[in-house]
Structure formats: C-alpha cells, structure tokens
Task: structure prediction
Amino acid sequence: MTVAVQFTDVSRVFGEVKAVDRVSIDIQDGEFFSMLGPSGSGKTTCLRLIAGFEQPNAGSIRIHGVEAVGLAPYQRDVNTVFQDYALFPHMNVLENVAYGLKVKGVGKSERLARAEEALAMVALAGFGGRKPAAMSGGQRQRVALARALVNRPRVLLLDEPLGALDLKLREQMQSELKKLQRQLGITFIFVTHDQSEALSMSDRVAVFNKGRIEQVDTPRNLYMQPATPFVAEFVGTSNVLRDDLARQLSGSDNPFSIRPEHARLAGSEPLGSDEVEISGLLHDIQYQGASTRYEIRLANGQNFCVSQANNQWQLGDAPVQPGQQVTARWARAAMVSLRQEA
Amino acid sequence: MSHSLTAASSLPAEGWLRRAATLLYRKPNLYLSLLLVPPLLWFGAIYLGSLLTLLWQGFYTFDDFTMTVSPELTLANFAALFQPANFDIILRTVGMAVAVSIASAILAFPIAYYMARYTTGKTKAFFYIAVMMPMWASYIVKAYAWTLLLAKGGVAMWFVQVLHLQPLLEFLLGVPGVGGNTLSTSHLGRFLLFIYIWLPFMILPIQASLERLPPSLLQASADLGAHPAQTFWQVILPLSIPGIAAGSIFTFSLTLGDFIVPQLIGPPGYFIGSMVYAQQGAIGNMPMAAAFTLVPIVLIAVYLSIVKRLGAFDAL
Result:
C-alpha cells in the first residue's frame, strides 16, 4: 500500500494561535480517512493545507510522494467538496461539473460527455440544464461531488459536506459516499465534527484536539481502546476516572475509561473477583427507548453514567428511584487505561 | 363561547385611537396602502409626472420667428434630432459616455477588488472615505480646478515635460477625434475630467458586487485547476458584471446629461446636456430641449436591455 498524503511535523500558526501543531499523519492510498474533532481543533486547517488554500509554517506535506508545500491549489491533483458547496451561480449544473475539465483544456464534446457521466454517477442525470439556485441542498451537495470527481483526482477532500443536510438525507448520503468511495477506489479525506458519522464511514479516523492529533485508529479501536481522556470522552460517551479514584479502582496512576454500557447497576449479588464497583447517589434517570441512562453522583462530585439496555419486553417498574444510594459495577477487563493528560 | 364574549365586552372603553389601530390590524391591505400611498404619490407626481410632462412638451411647436411655444402637436422636434448638426451632438456625447464608462470600469476594477478582498476594518474605512471624499467637494470647483491643471504651463504639462513625454502628448493630441490644440481644449482632457469626476460612481457598485462574492468560489475554481487568470475571466468577472453594469449606468447617464464639463474643458461643440441647457435657457425652445431629453432615456433603456440579454443580471 502506498501513502497518498503524508504530513511530517506540519505546523500552521495564525497570529498567536497554533491551528495545527507539529502534526504527522500517513494517509494510505484508497482509504476512507476521517479527521474528527471539535470546531477549532485544526482538522479543517489540515484539509486546507492538503488542498493548498493554506501553506504550513513548518513541516512537509507530500501528496503521492511529491512535496506539495509551495504548490498552488491548481497545481495539485486533489479536489475538494466544500462545506457551502461553492457552486458557481452563473453557470448551470452541467457547466459547473465540466468546469475543471474546461480550464484544463479538455475538448467541449468530451468534457460535456464526462460531466454527464459524473452527474449520472450521483443520480442527477438530466439535471444539467438547471441553475444551482434551482436545486435543493441535497442536490447541490451531489453536484459539488460530481464536480470534484469528474477530474478523477487521486485524493478527494470533503469539508463537512453533510453538515447542512437534515438527518435523513445525511444518513442516505453517508452510505452513498461510502459506496462511491469503494467503487472508485479514490482516497477520501473527510472532515467532520460528528463522531458517529466518522465512526460509521471511515476506515481510519484521526481525532484532533487543539491543533494536535490525539489518536489515529480504526473506528472500532478508537471506541474500544481510546488512548487519551479526550478521545474517550469525544468519541461516544465515557466515564473517565482520574487520580485517587483511578488509583483506588485500577491500582494505576493513569486515568481510565469505562463506557456507560459496560457498567450496570448492581443488585444484591456478591462482587465477583474480576469485578470493580463504585457507589454514589442516583441523580437522574433518562429513559431513552432502547436503553435507560442512570446518572450517579460520586462522592467527589463527578457524574458517573450507566446505560442499561431495555431488553425486557414487558413494562416493569423502575427498580430504582432518584435519590437512592446505588452501586455501579463492571468487569475489570472493560476498563481502558489512558495516557496521562498533558 | 359566552365566556369570551363577556370577556371582550368587559374590556375598558376604547378610544378612537385604539379603534383605528384595531381596524388597521384587521385590514392589513388598508394599513399597507395608507403607508404606501404618500410616497407613491410623491414619486408618481414629482418624478414620473414631471418627466412625462416634460417629454410631452417635445410634441409642442416652437415658432422660430416669434420665439414662442404653441401647444400644437408635431413630430418635428424629434425628427430634428436626426438632422446632421443635432445628430453629431448625440454621437459626440454617446461616444464620450461609452469611452468614459469603459475607462472608468477598467480603472475602478482593481481598486474595487482590493477594497473588497484585501481590506478590513480601518483600511476599508480609509478606502471608502478616500473614494468618496472627492464627491464632498463642489463639482464646479473641481471642474474649474482641472482647467488649471490641464492648462498650458499647468501641472499636467509640467509633469509631461519632466517625464520627457512631449512627443507622446503631441502624438495623442494629433489623433483626430481624441486630440485638440492643447490638453485643455482636447477631447482627451475632457475625457480625463469626466473619468475623475465619475470614478467613485463606478468603484462603489463594483466593490459591492465583489464583496458579495464568497471566497470559497475562488478557492473552488483554483481547486478545480484554474489558473488565477482563468479564475478571473470565468468566475470573478462574470459575477461582478451586475456591479459593472450598475456603475456604468451611473457614468453613462451622468456623462450624457452633463453640461458643465463640456463648456470648461475640450473643444467647442455641444453635448446633449449643454444643448438642452442652451435650448431651454438661452433660446427658450422648450420643445427641442424636451426632445433632446428623450435621447439619454432611450439610450439607457437600450443599454439596459442589451446588458440584460447578455445575462448580466442572472446572478443577482
């Protein structure tokens, strides 16, 4: 497998703010790679560094082995799907899609044929004569995708492309994007702040925090083996126990994470030898349909979450009430030891 | 039901003001028309009405001998526009208006582009003031100032001498239709003064149209492989055409109607504006002045329909 995009110690500074701080990543050819993080974490800046809209202050960016630092966007073999789609309002859909071919000097009949083909690929055959303003958000999204893909880039950059769509449409586009990526075999680099989106679509995910990468891993490993407290809490929900509590429960100075669904409310049965437990005051019960969430306030004031599947089909009485003293219990093996916070 | 009825009747007695307010609230169309009628009357009577009355006078008869106007309807005035002497005036004015509009657009575009895309906060405010400040000074003072600037021995000539450009200037002044005896009596000088005076009217609309251009469109163009020049011709220029069109309507119509600049700078000969002024003011031939007034109106209507047909307003 070859490396499609390689960051080596890349930094980008805006005034006092280190938007990207000594980031190194290898993105493999043909992989669906997501950059996940809260806003301002540096993920979009990284994408813009690959596209060439920003230049790094330090470090090296290689795209398919070629040093890209100093190259203008039009000198790079990557294409971008913009968050606001950035369709040209004065051109119709077909002209928009054919634009990349036109500026590269592809003949008129060939570029129109290829643009039609790209529109068909995103299920918009026959919409070529419309102006972007006459299309819905979901359709514009597809036009933007076709406009990028018609150039047959080796790397496709997607900047939160689904952010403006409603939930149903977003889920549909997620699976279509994934399908398209498998079909074409192009490297997709997908920026999102939505962790469930990143988990469900990606081969690998890089989690960004304050301009640095916390962890790069497969979605499964990211969820099951988070490396840092930030990853544990940002990807899904997690109970991170630190300091004295961590020492007392795990015997280590490092913080650890336990997922709410890996813990349960203990009954009167005795504590197993491979189990750990902690007690607190039941603070809130949230019924969520498939599961119920119990929020327990620990002695140190921290909240501890337990999520139990509602897999009894009968409607029973809630076994516990807020205000009661309860105990959460989990298997020792379910605890994930995390790196110390910097 | 009966509850709400008694509740309503138990409200405190209503004054006429409250009754009027309730009436307006219940009849939104009445409310709207009350708000709209006064300004529409003003606009209709003062602007359109007086303009139409003026144009109507173009059909009246002017007696050359008695120098009086009689309300006998005739097309003679409009026909007279096509007499060589009058038609020359129209061509001269339109030629100048077109040249001034094109040159203003070319000069204004880089300034507008810089203002829209590269300035923020205080720099932007500085540019706005710098562009508009010349408009704060009296138009006549500026026009007279230029007669001095362009005069023999004036700043412009001195500058030309320092740069050893006399041969170039002499060549330009020798070109028929452009030149003249000196800079201040040439078409070129008049052209420079027009550009100076109308440039802000071109900069501001172009700047506004460029300001609305999302940066992501330019990035998308570069991302798709377009060189900066291609991005300019394919994206920036087409999307700024509504601004250029708006600006050129100003420069075009203001040049067509101007009657002071042609008197102060440039070779003798009437412009449409100065012709209207002369017909109406000196001769009292209101019908002919009215006929001349129709010319810019028709020209701008034709210009707008051409621009519209070219699709300039599609992106609005």
